[in-house]
What we know:
This protein has twelve helices and six strands. By secondary structure, it is of the alpha/beta class.
Amino acid sequence: MTNTKKIIILLGDILILYGALILTLIFRYGPNYFGESFYAHLKPFSLIFVIWVVTFYLADLYKEKRLRINLATVQVFILTIIINIVISVILFYLFPSFFKLTPKTNLTIFSLIFGILDLGWRIILVKIYISSGLKDRLLIIGDSPIINEVINYLKNNPQIGYDVTAQKSENDIDQIIAKNKINTIVIQTHLKKDQKIIKIFYQLLPSKIAIVDLITFYETIFQKLPLKELNESWFIDKITTRRHLYDIAKRTVDFCLALCLSIIFLPLILTIAFLIKLTSRGSIIYKQIRTGVNNEPFVFFKFRTMRLDAEKFGPQWTS
């Protein structure tokens, strides 16, 4: 799924979140008292909405596999909403001075309205993506089992939004691009060294056609790497290419998210700690030296799940 499509789904979710809130307040208080109730709910629910969107993201509801509206997707969708409701309730009751309301009924009605509207929005979006006029016109160049896997997957999942054309060699590429109005090209890594293909791609620069190597595209679609396509040069490129700004941003987001989730799940964390202490002797926290980024060791902390003497004969495999 392209970033544009993900943004469209995200924006739709945000609009539906606020739309569901508006409908909830009109249903509860009527149009005459809507303005007053809306301003009272706007600030606390806006914070809740951020958490809902993050949870949707963590549940992979913005990825290709969740665009197919099947039983598995609906189950994940419903489960994510339930998790969001639980988190919202915890926040409302844990920080009453900030939220200044405990909307049990409103939250229930809101969740029901949002669930119906958002699921309907995604179903409509799938139908729109399936329509050929809005599909990304994709040309895949090369011949391998991995390419066949990608082609079959995209053809069997039209909701992802790709109209696929396959070409095994570099012959007549320029004509195929013009005929099919291609806007994205996927190519095997070794073919990027082909001088004929390089010249064709160079001529395509003004047309702003996106050119993606097969490994990157495969990873985007399947969220995993095609091991048979990897070679030494791929590892060198990935390992030696440093993205300092990305690393800093990711570290910041990870820390902030971990801090927020720690606060949200503090009651659960304390409960687990109490149960560990109650049911077994020894420390609540288990720590271990592990290897992190750049082979630097760090201390890893987790709740102890083993007996105190579980490793008296050294590290043990679990089953």
